[in-house]
Each structure stands twice: as C-alpha cells, then as structure tokens.
Specification:
Elements lengths: L1 H14 L2 E4 L3 H14 L7 E10 L4 E8 L11 E7 L6 E3 L2 H13 L6
Antiparallel strand pairs: 1-2, 2-3, 3-4, 4-5
C-alpha cells in the first residue's frame, strides 16, 4: 500500500506545480500598473525583485517586493505582494503580507496554496 502512495503523491504535486519564468518588460509594466491602481498613493509605489511563475492553469503569478505609503502616510518597507494575471481579466493583487509571503515561498517550491 505504501509503495503506491509515493507515485500518487508525486503526480498530485506535479499537477499543481508552477514553472519559474523571467518576467518580460510588458509583464513588469502590467504588474506595476496593477499595483499603482490598487495602492493608496500610486506615486509612492516602489518595486524590486520580480519573480514570475506560470501556473498549470495558464495564469501567471508574479511575486514582487513593494514599498508603498500606508494610511498614515509612512512607507511600509519592502514586503512581498502577489499579482495574479490571466488573459481577458484585470490582474488580482494580494497585498496581505503574511499570506503573500507564504504564497511566494510556495510558488518558489513549485506549488501554490491559492491558485
């Protein structure tokens, strides 16, 4: 019984995997635009360290470190944000830092909790 579980587990993990890709300039521009459209102060958004992942369903998840103004007008410091993009719809931005950090770690390992 245990001998059959390993191949099944491998197939299950492979089916929800992600493939790392270097984001292209248009992808980076689309991610920056999505971040600026959802930020409190669009002019304060600073980005670095883009990591793009192609998901098994054809969508693209991009992890990026973002520094932006909070509601008090102070800068938050660089923290991870996930932007999910698919053809035919607006990108979805996940600003929640603990969840975004977990999702970026999972995407880097080849799986995803959200997508």
């Amino acid at each position: 019984m245990k001998a059959y579980m390993f191949p099944v587990l491998c197939l299950a993990l492979a089916s929800c995997g992600s493939v790392t890709a270097v984001p292209t300039l248009p992808q980076e521009t689309a991610v920056r635009t999505a971040l600026q459209n959802t930020a409190r102060n669009p002019a304060s958004v600073t980005t670095r360290n883009f990591r793009s992942y192609t998901l098994s369903n054809g969508e693209t998840a991009t992890c990026v470190d973002v520094n932006a103004e909070n509601a008090f007008g102070g800068l938050t410091g660089f923290s991870p944000v996930v932007v999910n993009a698919a053809a035919g719809r607006e990108p979805i931005v996940f600003w929640d830092t603990p969840a975004a950090q977990m999702e970026c770690d999972l995407l880097a390992r080849g799986s995803s909790a959200r997508f």
